[in-house]
Amino acid sequence: MLNNKVMKEIDWSNLSFGYMKTDYNVRCYYRDGKWGELELCSEETLNIHMAATCLHYGQEAFEGLKAYRGKDGKIRVFRPQANAERLQSTCNGILMPEFPTELFCEAVKKVVKANERFIPPYESGASLYIRPLLIGTGAQVGVHPASEYLFVVFVTPVGPYFKGGFATNPYVIIRQFDRAAPLGTGTFKVGGNYAASLRANKMAHDAGYASEFYLDAKEKKYIDECGAANFFGIKNNTYVTPLSTSILPSITNRSLMQLAEDMGLKVERRPISEEELETFEEAGACGTAAVISPIERIDDLENNRSYVIAKDGKPGPISEKLYNKLRAIQYGDEADPYGWVMIVE
Q1: 3-state secondary structure 47-104
Q2: Rounded distance, CA 256 to CA 21, Å?
Q3: Residue 276 gets which letter from DSSP?
């Protein structure tokens, strides 16, 4: 049963994209070559060895997905199987044991159900953010994979990633720092990629931009990512998104590509040069947190250029249509012909 006291105390429409304590998290330990049972836990802290490989050698992976309360009262989680598969890809990349898809989905259901009273109401503009985390806990001084691991999944209610919600934002190209190198860990969701982005992100924010914009690390010629999100551009009825060995494969981007194709757009995944930015009729950053953050303009301060994409300062019609369609599936307002949604009962 929902705790009405908590429901009334939380100002759902003014939530930030931050952490709020909830009732439970779910944990699972990997010992002696196998995963154990899922455990429900009310403790917020982790007790780990000071020589754990997650602390020294970056054996750490995480995911991000959301649960939504529909108009019909049902709770829907968006594409957990895809998150499980991406986590498995990361595990292979940094030599951690794969966490099985079925167990992943069971853990997500368990933690969402246990914290049901924290799922924001329909049309509040907020959602329940789900953060799965997998870390090497075994003590190791040499540079080797651990023998023991811990999988944790916790939840927290969040508001929009950008304060303005679905509105255009300015971005700035920053060349001084790279988020990830080709053939490095860019395609895996590991904390090191985000640590590498902190300075560039702060520079962008300090200069008044929503986020930093990365070019490829090798030649500084091609579009890589918009901060921690994938880039897409729209022109000539075509949805174009970068193809690169250093970009994290966004589940939101994959979903938007499918929707774009079904809306009659052509879809292209290919290298996009910086100069091509001026040809896009619409563009956006996409990811779990914001779904789509439409791009107003991208400034290249070093070369004194500004690529103005939203000429009237408003999101473009195709971006808006894609955004509304995806959100409608997430909330259950429209049918889900793709089998993307997992209902928690």
Answers
A1: CCCCCEHHHHCCCEEECCEEEEECCCCCEEEECHHHHHHHHHHHHHHCCCCCCCHHHH
A2: 32
A3: G
Neighbours of 302 (CB within 10 A): 11
Separation CA 80–CA 142 (nearest Å): 35
d(CA 160, CA 127) in angstroms, rounded, equals: 9
pLDDT of 251-304, one tens digit each? 999 999 999 999 999 999 999 999 999 999 999 999 998 899 999 999 999 999
Calculate the alpha carbon distances from 139 to 27, 162, 212, 221, 265 in Å: 19, 39, 36, 42, 51
| One-letter amino acid of 36 | G
Instruction: Name the amino acid, one letter, at 139.
Output: A
The stretch 176-199 carries a mean pLDDT of 95
| Three-state secondary structure string covering 105-154 | HHHHHHHHHHCHHHCCCCCCCCEEEEEEEEEECCECCCCCCCCCEEEEEE
Which three-class secondary structure state does DSSP give residue 24? coil
Structure tokens at 323: 């955004």
- The pTM score is 0.95
Tokens 């870390």 found at: 135
